[in-house]
Amino acid sequence: MNLRRLPALALSVLFAVGCFYAAFGTISVLAGVKVGFQLWWLEILIAAACIWLGLQVFARVENRQSTNPRADRGERAIWRLAYRKSWKLSLEDILAGTMLDENSALNALKSLEAKHQAKLEPDGTWTLLNR
To answer: At CA 85, angle to CA 96 and CA 69, rounded to 5?
Structure first.
C-alpha cells in the first residue's frame, strides 16, 4: 500500500465508524430493537459505502494537489508585501513580512525576475514591476 494514501485510509475508516454508529443508533431507535438486530447487514453496508466514499474524496483531493500544485505561493506572498511596501523590498523585508524561508524567497524572486516582473537593484533590494 502507498504510504501517501495512509492518512486518507485512516480518515475514511474513522468516517465509516462514525457512520456505522449513526446508522446503528438510527436503525435501532426507529425500527425497534427486534428489527434493528435483523438489519445488522445494513449497518455494515453503510460503513463500507462510507469507507469507499471517503477514499474517493481523498484520492481526488490528493490527485488535484499532485497534478496542479501551487508553486507560486511565494510569488503571491511577495506581491502582497510589495503592494504594502511601495514595490521595493529587501530580502530581510520579505523574510520578516512573509512566512517564507530564505531559499523559498530567493527562488520566488528569481522566478519573478525570469518573468520580467522583478528587478534586482545595485543596492541589493528588489523592485517589483507593476503587472
So the answer is: 65
Asked whether the CA dihedral 18, 20, 26, 28 is positive or negative, the reply is negative
Vertex 105 angle, CA 100 and 109, to 5°: 150
Residue with cell 522566478: 111
Instruction: Pull the grid cell for residue 3.
Output: 504510504
- Given a cut of 70, is residue 66 above it in pLDDT? no
126: pLDDT strictly greater than 70? yes
Among 126, 83, 122, which Cα is nearest to 108's? 126
Tell the burial category of 96 from Cβ atoms under 10 Å away from its Cβ (0-12, 13-18, 19+).
exposed
Written as one letter, the residue type at 124 is: G
Residue 52 confidence class, pLDDT cut points 50, 70, 90? confident
Residue in this structure with the C-alpha cell 521595493, named with its chain if needed? 88
